[in-house]
Amino acid sequence: MEYVCDAPGDRTWFRLVTEGEAVAESVEMQHAVEKHYRRERERAIEAFHPTTPVFIEQDINKEDHIRRSMPLFLTLRNQDGKPLATAMLPPRGRQGGGCIVVGPGNADPYPDHGDAIEALGRHFGFRLDRGSCYPYRR
After folding, report:
1. How do residues 51-85 score in pLDDT, each as one tens digit?
2. Which residues are CB-neighbours of 96 under 8 A, at least 6 positions away?
């Protein structure tokens, strides 16, 4: 995981950077972030075009391309490392794409962690409001 930013109440946002981290997040949070991570990684791999015809050099810059192309998968953690919320933001954290923020079991994270979600939005320079980011509102 990579540090992203601090949030109020001794909570911290981290970026999930490996499939293993996405798997662990899915298990701990009881939701399907792992499935989404794998799908988005495959899309990024398919969109990669090597810059050289030399076989042994074709994967140069592939991981950089994947990191730039994939949405950001983020986890909010407390001081003890317990996951509290999971977010998926547009690639490079830029406004314009869809966002998803969910709690354990796809529950609404906004009542308990709205201030932390707001801090994440400020970090990237756009609002992560419940109406557009929580997909299971009723």
Report:
1. 777 777 777 777 888 888 899 999 999 999 999 99
2. 90
Per DSSP, 95 falls in state B
User: Is the distance from CB of 134 to CB of 113 less than 8 angstroms?
Assistant: no
Give residue 43's Cα distance to chain centre. Answer: 15
Domain count, the chain: 1
Quote the DSSP letter at residue 121: H
Percent helix, strand and coil across the chain, each to the nearest 5: 45, 20, 35
Domain for residue 138, yes or no?
A: no
pTM above 0.90, yes or no: no
Give the largest CA-CA distance in the chain.
Answer: 54
Asked whether the beta carbons of 121 and 76 are under 8 A apart, the reply is no
- Give the domain range for residue 87: 2-133
Does position 116 have pLDDT exceeding 70, yes or no?
Answer: yes
| Residues across the chain | 138
Element (H, E) at 133: helix 130-133
The DSSP code for 72 is: E
Backbone angles phi, psi at 54, to 5 degrees: -70, 115
